[in-house]
Protein 1
Amino acid sequence: MAPPLHLQPSTAPVNLANGKPSAPSTTGPKGGARRRFSLLDRIPYQVRYMHDLVGVSDGDCRDQLRMDRSTFHKLCYLLHSQCGLKSSRNVTIAEKVAMFLSILAHHTKNRTVKFQFKRSGQTVSKHFHAVLHCVLRLHSTFLVMPTVVTDEEADHRWEMFPGCLGALDGTYIDVHVPTTDKGRYRNRKGQCSVNVLGVGDRNMQFVYVLTGWEGSAVDSRVLRDAVNRANRLKVPRGNYYLCDNGYPNCEGFLTPYKGVRYHLNEWTARRPQNFQEYFNMKHTRARNVIERTFGLLKMR
């Protein structure tokens, strides 16, 4: 004889109208809505934020960190492999670099980055200085040394300038200043700005930058300060940079002929008529590299 079966009472609610089990209730014990559990809730905020920042689109990454995702990951690799930057227990290398770039890209305060990354102010400051020390150690990798134009130069734009290192020029960067200082910072175009000196090589890479001078300062004065200060612009003897007539024509700096057409748009309709115009045409075509370098910088 078979042993009797011991049936456990069902705990599922039953619909009294048809005798069938009803759907489980989604209300809490006190009648409120029951919160559904999701594994996504267990992902730390920092992981989700970093995914949105550098894992979705180049546009968002460029807007927030001023570089695309590929460049960002290359920078993280360089800081790790060459400078020894490592992830800590709770902060990855990518998050450290992202906090560092957020401060540099937008001049963001510590308290803003603290709220943005959900970290303490001490953590933000600690990792900012750690990344800064590593970046400074990469100076030999990032700093560019100009190459001298030789007599066998194949580029037709530079073949007439043996010994040349590149070109330099100034540009205006708009700034906001107190009302009492607006007179000193107002440039010839009527805008408040700083006059930035940029020196570049033939490959559209900056080799020296001097900023801080008021917009009212003339280019020659900014260059004079650049060659006389402690961390000055150094031009080896026998070499020179191309510059326009806003700078002096002296040792280390070569300007075009004055009183002769010079700019690129002036050579489209009529060819050079004498050696001075021919020299100015070659000069402006070579010196235009610094204009294009500034253009790329301002596009970022």
Protein 2
Amino acid sequence: MQYKQLLPLALASLASAQTPSLTDALGSQNSTLSTLNALLASYSNFTDSLNDMKNITILAPSNDALGALTSSNDSTSLLFDSDYVQALLSYHVLNGTYYDSSFGNESIFIPTMLTNESYSNVTDGQVVEARLSDNNVTFFSALKQNASVVTANVNFTGGTIHVINSLLVIPENVTETLSNANLTAAEGAINTANLTDSVVDTPDLTIFAPNNDAFNAIGSIVGNLTSDQLTSIIGYHVINGSVYYSSDFENTTLTSVSGQNITITVLNGSVYANSAKVTVPDILLENGVVHVIDQVMNPENTSAAPDTTASSATPAFTGASSGSDGVPFTSGVTTPTSTFPAATSAGGPEATSSSSGLAMPMKTGAVGAAALFGGAAVLINL
């Protein structure tokens, strides 16, 4: 009887002895992870905490992926902020153990260990999107920038490790995201309505952002909008207190900041907010998520419904048409200099499948560069 009780314990001990520690597992991949291993060695407290964790998945950037951090002066300067580097590392640690077999064609949104409020204002931690893309397990971060798994299921005592070919990028705030996604009319409209601080600082937002073509389609009436009307229109595109990713959408109604309901319809694989079609879902924000839509929704026309027979989106504002002065609200708004995947269908030029530069977030408030640390030298010198 005693032998029967001891046998499972002995087998468990044997399995534990055969499963390497985090340090040993990372070391087994040193040919591709030497830069990450050196960086983690310079953050012993952070690494010690990782060693103590259970049920986690680490997305380990390859040497080439981490090399992108030193490709520009802007990103290199962030290496001298220890809070930023630890936030970046935390964003590569998923809550839960996910083997490569855990992912399918449908997107899932996985909370990470990034809970530092200077970089994330999402309850339970900033997320990454994960799904199969061209049969490769792929993770999507800020502005739909993607990283694919090149070596899967390097198991250790606390979970598993996937080596990825690009760095995950911490999602930016609303202003930076709209700008870099070429949603410059939405950015300008929010600024014109003096709502920038509100949408940047409020946690857990879902924003339906009309693309530039959508704003252009109502250009004829924009000049006649009062300040209160513009505020109401902007508020009608924002859900406060809940972050709804595409995987959460079903046929339902959501209450906007303006107080009116938005009807969500899932039809033939497409998602609609009232009559506006979601053209680019799930652009992650520092404080939530943006879904790009092809119409400006009208808080005075909440019954607008999808018209799948129309060849182009019909404005929800009666009598509205394109104006003669260019895209509304874009005057004085900075045009993005890099093209990111999220800008592909944002009402501007078609984007390439990869970005021409990493979009690096800044801390809420000023980034302190006074505290130099060994990790920066490690990355810069390798």
Protein 3
Amino acid sequence: MSQASTARSAAYLAALTQEIEKKLQRALASQSQRRNLLEQLFADIALEVDDRARGFLLSTYSLTPIYDIILGGEEDVISPAEERSENKLCFYDVLADHYVRVPENGKSILDLIVQLWSQSFSSHIFALLFHKWLFEVQLENSEVLLRYSSALVQGATNVFWIDIHTNTRRFQSLFHYLLEEVALVPTRLNKIAPQAQRDLYLLLSRFIFFYNAVDKLESFLKEFPIFPNSFLAGGSADIFVIELADQLQKLKVEPVLLHYLSQIKVLQGLELRMTTSTRLKACLYSFTSPGGPMYPTRIVRHAAWEALDLLFPKLDSILDISLASSSDCYIHGIGPFLVGTS
């Protein structure tokens, strides 16, 4: 790596940081234009890096390992059907790494975001620019950590829903970092408060199907934090399926809903409480009939029936389910009691 290339990259990142500061300062100074300016800034940092800038940035900065996956460094990680937007390197990817390597360069931006905490798009911007900084830079103040971790979960939730609504995966690198580099790495996860850990796991549970990370599900469930209501809700598999069922009923974009239904086979063999199993059946069954409340299309109805047949092969009607005396059961695949069997 030549000194000239390094200096060029540093100057480029400094210029980007300066533009972000200017826009945040303008937003702080103009109440009437604040929302529009923050929305513009969010859109700017979510843009894909152009080929010329991408070339010299990648040649002079060694990005974190997760980008080997996002940029196609490992074969067969992303299926051809999902190639539309996964291979993009966005400005937030580069800046998030930069603010870990040179934390002082992001301090003024962070201070401005804190002053704009309550404004729309502030949490989006924070999550994109400082998700790595939060876990990889040493922070001593526990109160600040709690505030930042709450903003991270809120911001990540918002941007993941943007991906859902547009059926793109522009924020896939953020999801994979939170899953693989935080949720599955206890030393990083434990940097944030227990409640923030639980909130993060609930968030990841809702989007793990969308971002094609079901191969991590077994490890994910093993690392699930303890929930205060686990006596009532059940174990990690129960909590995961409850979140997944709730997510399914919120999905309005047909290709996204079909994508979720196509991956539901990974639930085979999960040990669930009867109440959780029934909740999942009811959720899937709601997509099998035309009309309200879900108004599914024919292709969605067909996919929902396939999912029901796969997970509960002898389920003729949700009203014909026989409750077992045990509070636990297994989704079809293994176990002494197969849901949907007599």
